[in-house]
Input
Amino acid sequence: GAVVSQHPSWVICKSGTSVKIECRSLDFQATTMFWYRQFPKQSLMLMATSNEGSKATYEQGVEKDKFLINHASLTLSTLTVTSAHPEDSSFYICSARSPGQGASNEQFFGPGTRLTVL
Amino acid sequence: GENVEQHPSTLSVQEGDSAVIKCTYSDSASNYFPWYKQELGKRPQLIIDIRSNVGEKKDQRIAVTLNKTAKHFSLHITETQPEDSAVYFCAGGGADGLTFGKGTHLIIQP
Output
């Protein structure tokens, strides 16, 4: 159980375009989803926390108007990178947490989306 | 917010030997400390976790210890095998999310 999927797994786009990444919890309902960014040979950096039905909470330094997050249902959160630039090229990973996991704060990670902006 | 420091950044051990990776955290409110293994280009995989009400946890060749007073926790891998080679991340946090350490590249020498 506790499977999280992401789509697409990789995407190449031109500078200035927008890219949408989907994160789905396949076998559980996720009230909270997290979006991370990972540059090559670096750690995962939390970008924002997405709660179903409410606005996302962004980490310091992350532009909320550039990285639009929508968590419209208990199984889907989307991240849209607007007006993407080469410096946005990175590995974007989502994770989901379910209250059904009891007291656990364990996060289940999606497979990641590799974004390359030309 | 939470700050997690991880050492060393690279660790090379002989196959069969033990490996130890250490992390410290800053926020005393953090109550959940998972360890993840990440292979190149793949998602992080949870290998073991520990909560703040426990001092030690073991799962076969892997163990984690937590010292709440000193705010540090460690990953111990015994009898290392080639498939243990990967980048390992510690993390600390709670319901509001996780802060990750910078990672340790573990290399198992044959």
